[in-house]
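Record format v2
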Amino acid sequence: MPASSPRQMRLGLFLLSTGHHIAGWRHPGAQADMPTSIRAFAEIARMAEAARFDMLFLADNNCVPQTDWPAVRRTTRANIFEPIALLSALSVVTERIGLVATGSTTYSEPYHIARAFGTLDHISGGRAGWNIVTTSNSNEAWNFGRDSHMAHADRYRRAAEFVEVTKGLWDSFADDALVRDVESGIYFDAGKLRVLDHQGEHFTVRGPLNLARPPQGHPVLVQAGGSEAGRDLAARTAEVIFAVNQALPDAQEFYADIKRRLLAHGRDAEAVKVMPGLFPVVGRTRAEAEDRMAELQRLLHPDVGLSLLSFLTGGFDFSPYDVDGPLPELPDTDVGKARLKVIADLAKRENLSIRQLYERIAVSRGHHMVVGSAAEIADRMQEWFEGGAADGFNVMPPTFPEGFRAFTELVVPELQRRGLFRTEYSGATLREHLGLARPPHAARGHVALPPA
Amino acid sequence: MPASSPRQMRLGLFLLSTGHHIAGWRHPGAQADMPTSIRAFAEIARMAEAARFDMLFLADNNCVPQTDWPAVRRTTRANIFEPIALLSALSVVTERIGLVATGSTTYSEPYHIARAFGTLDHISGGRAGWNIVTTSNSNEAWNFGRDSHMAHADRYRRAAEFVEVTKGLWDSFADDALVRDVESGIYFDAGKLRVLDHQGEHFTVRGPLNLARPPQGHPVLVQAGGSEAGRDLAARTAEVIFAVNQALPDAQEFYADIKRRLLAHGRDAEAVKVMPGLFPVVGRTRAEAEDRMAELQRLLHPDVGLSLLSFLTGGFDFSPYDVDGPLPELPDTDVGKARLKVIADLAKRENLSIRQLYERIAVSRGHHMVVGSAAEIADRMQEWFEGGAADGFNVMPPTFPEGFRAFTELVVPELQRRGLFRTEYSGATLREHLGLARPPHAARGHVALPPA
C-alpha cells in the first residue's frame, strides 16, 4: 500500500441514547431527556460528522428487553425511538455520515425492510446500512403473537433467506430503468424491471419492490453474530461485522476466522470490515479518566447490575449465589452464544466475583473497555488495528454528549495525527467511506415486460 | 359561535409525487424526478406550511398496485418512498404542519405501527397522524406470502382490533411516567407503566411499548372507508375522514350519516372532521384553467386511462366493450365498495362513455374535480363547507410544484379573505390545528410495578 494512503481505521458511533453506561443518564455529562429529544440526537449526529465518523449505528428491540421492573425503571432502555424514523430525520441535518439501523429478520417482513432501508438510502443520498439481527428475546416474541422466540438454527436459516429476498427486492429496478421520457410518455423501461417471484422455505414474495434501486445498489449489510451460525451468515452476506471481543487474542482469532471464511465463500478479505465495540472512558490524563469511571460506577444501583447480568446470560438466576463469590458455571442457552462466552471468559481471566463482573458488564455490556488518556486509548486502538484484530471500531461513549465530546476532542485528533483516521471525507456514500464496492444489479426472477 | 372565530376550513395536501393527474409528470409544471427526490418533497412541504395547511397526507401501498406493465410504465406510481421515513425527514424541514402517513392493518403489526407513528409524533413535536387502511390489493397480498387479500368483513374486524391494540400500546406509559430523578436514580415510575396483555381474535400482544406516550397522546387517526363497515369503523375510531364524493348531495348524505353515527357511538359531532378529496385545476381565469386541464388531458395515453379504470373497479375487464359506448353494469367486488359506487354514479349522472369516464377518472381518481378561477374554486369549497358536506378538503393538485403553487397563490388567499381559512397557525400540534381533543390516558392491562 503506498505511503500516501495508509490503511485507514473505520469508526462507527453506537448511538445508545444517554450513553452506553447504563447509569450514565444520572451523570452531569449526560442529557437525561435524550431518548425523546430529536434535538439531542441531531446534536450528536452533527458532532460525529464533524469528527468524520463513518457512521451512526442504532441498536434496536421491538420490546422492552428486560421486564425486571425494579431494575429497568432505573434505566433509559425502555424508551427508544423507532430507528428508521430517527435516522431519516438525522439524514436531513447531516450530509456525509453513514446511517445504520437495526432491523429484525424474525419479526419483520422482507418487503417492509427493503422499502424502509431503500427509502433511507434514497433520502440520505446513499448513506444507509442495515444491521441484520435475528432477535433472541422472548419479550419481543410476546409482542408479535408468538409464545417464545424461534430456535437459534431456525432464526439463522430464516435470516439467510430473508437477506436474499431483500437483496432481490432492491434489484427490482435496474440502475438505469427510470428513463422519465416526457416526449414518449415512458417513465420507466419495463424491460429493466424484474418480478422476483421468490418462493422459499420461509417466504413467498412476488415483488417488484415499488422503489427505484437504492443509490448504493444495496444499503450496507451489517451483522453482529459471533456464534458458528452467525459467523457463517456474516461471512456469506455481511459487509461490516460489529464484533464483541474483550481481549486482543480473542479479537485476533475472530478476525482471522472471518477473513478465512470469506475466502472460502469466494469473497475478498477486504469485502468485510470487522469493527469490534469499544467503550472508551477518556480523560486529559489517566487519573482524570479513572476518576470519571469511578464517578459513573458510583451511580450504578446493584439492582441494575444484577438484572443486566442475568439478562445478558439468557435469564440465569443469580439469587442463590453469593454476589461476592465466583461466577457459577453458565448453562448453554439459545441466546447470544458468543456473548455468553465473552462474559464467562472475562470472569475467568480476571478472576472476578459476581459483583465485580456485573460492575464491568453494566459499563460496557461485554465490550472492550479502555480507561485512559487520549494517547493510551489511541495506543490500544492502534494495537488492535495493526495487530490483525480490527478494521475499525464501533465507539460506545459512556455518556452523551460529554463522554462522546471528550472522544472527538481528544482521541480523534490523536488518531488523525498518527495518520490512522481521515481528516476529511473523500467519498459521499457509506460504501465509499468504508471502501466497499457497489453491488452490481443481479437479474433475479423474470423481467416485467419482455421485448415485443 | 362568536363572529371573531368563525368556523375554519381544514386543508390537507395529498402528497402524491409529481401530482394527482396520472400523466402530470409529463407536464412542464411537474418535476419528473420528484418520486426519488427528498429536495423536491421538502420544497412542497415548506410551500404547504407557508400556506398554513393543516397537514400533509401520504397514501401508500406495499406493492406496485397495478401490474399492467404497458400502462404502468407510463406512470410514476411504481416508485414511492416508504411514508414514515419520508415524513420523518420532512418533519425536520418544517415546524408546524401535520404529517399523516398511511399504514396498513392487514400487512403490518400493531407493535410496529405504534412504534413508528409514536416516534414520528415525538420527532415532530406532536404532528403525526395515521391513515388507517385495510388494503384491498392482491398485489400486496402476494408480497407477504398470502394467496389473496382477506375478505372485506375480515379485514375490517382485524382493523378494529388492530386500532384498539395500537391505542393501548401508545398508553403504555402515562403522560407523567418519566420522572428522570437523577438523585434517586429512578428514570420512570414503573407504577405508571402498564403492560397491555392483549389477547384477541387476531392479535396477542403483551407490551409495553418501548416508547414514552406520544406528545399528542395518540397520533391523529384518519380513515377513508366509505362502505358500511368502513363508515362504522370510522364513526367508532376515526378523527379525520378522507371522503370521496363527486357531487354535493352525495357528500351531504355522507357527512350527515357520519355525524349521526358519531352520536350513536356516544361521540361528539365535532370529534370527526370530514375532508373530501378535491382536485383543483386553477387559473387566473376560467379559460386559463380549462386550457391547463386540456393540456394535461392531451398527455394521457389511452393504455393508462383504461388500465386505471380497470384497477379502480376491482380488475373489471373492459376489453369486450366499445370504449365509446356506455359503462356496463359493474359487478359487486370485494374492493373499495364506496369507490365503485362513486364511479358508477358519475358515469350515469353525466352519461359518460367508457372513454369519457376514464379521462375523468385518470384525472381525479374518482374525486371531486373543479376547473376554474380562484374565485370559482373558492365558491365551490365554500358551498360544500357551509352546506353540510365538508369540514375541509384534502387538496389534490394535478402537478407538483406548479399545480400546487397556483392553488397556494390564488385560492388560499381567496379563502383567507373570506375568513374561511387561517392566516397564521394558532396551535403547535396537528390536534390543535384540527381542533381535536388530546385523548386522556386509558388504563388498560395491568400496572408494571404495583405499589409495594
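Chain A has a mean pLDDT of 93.
Residues 152-170 of chain A form the longest helix (19 residues).
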